[in-house]
Amino acid sequence: MIVSETLRSSSRSSTGILAGISRLRQKLDKDSRVLLFALSSNAPDLSQTVHQLGHLAAQSVGCLSAPEHPDVVSCSVALLDAQKATLFRSDIPGRMPAQVGRWHSSKRMQEKTAAPMDDPIPSDFGVDWEEVWSKGLSTPPLPQELQKHQFSGVNCIVYFSDDAPEGLANSLRQLQHSDKMGMICSSTPFITGRPFTMFLNDSVYSGGAVGVAISGVPHSLHVDFPANLKPITPEVTITSCEGNLINSLENSNPTRMLLEAIEAAGIHNVKEDFYLTLVQGGHKKQAFRITSGDPSRGTISLESHATPPEGSAVQVRG
Question: For the whole model, what pTM was predicted?
């Protein structure tokens, strides 16, 4: 990595960020680097800022991200050695959104009504369940740009994704010796007219993922949480879980444990967000937002498709 920096400015003006981009442009040779960036979606001059970012490097990959504060525009940039960075694009499908309720039923009925009378409607509305299950078990091929690399050559992968990254994440498991860090982009339909907004050189994408693979560079992966997230429980072990539900911690009722910890910490606003953080080898690895809890049953649910496995050490922060 040549340089990594976060630029900030007032949400009313991108002047501070543009000044920072200009300073970086004067320092470094454009042709020898690749730009990785995440620009907060509340920037008032998005087009101009993205255009200026593109002049920092011969190649670039980035996205619009959620603002860290309503009154602040931020842009995190990393400039990489072009000889050791490979940009890639992925359109590997992830989890399909659930279709439930009256809309789902109505849609199916419309499809059924619209079918020609002499054309039989297949059972299960045409779902090939064998294909569905086989897709869940198979590993998708790597994005085309990464297929030419030897698996041992990629040290680190950073990617920006829409809200269904499961297919790409499953594919990248083939790179067993690489660290992977992914970020779900901010929802931008009312900002750019796209569900998500990702950039790869001169192209803009509304879905899938874009990213960079870094080869031959010594590195270490470290995760920091916002300073206001303080631990309110000691490290405890998941003793029962299913899907995105944790049924017991230390063989005890996890919701009651959470409520007791909130009371002991003197937190009076229980509407605040609380997070279950995964701890491995004494290091923080991942945070899952707690979305609900049931004091009688004890179960707490996480904003995730799956919890950490049973036996994992976790800690509640809030």
Answer: 0.70
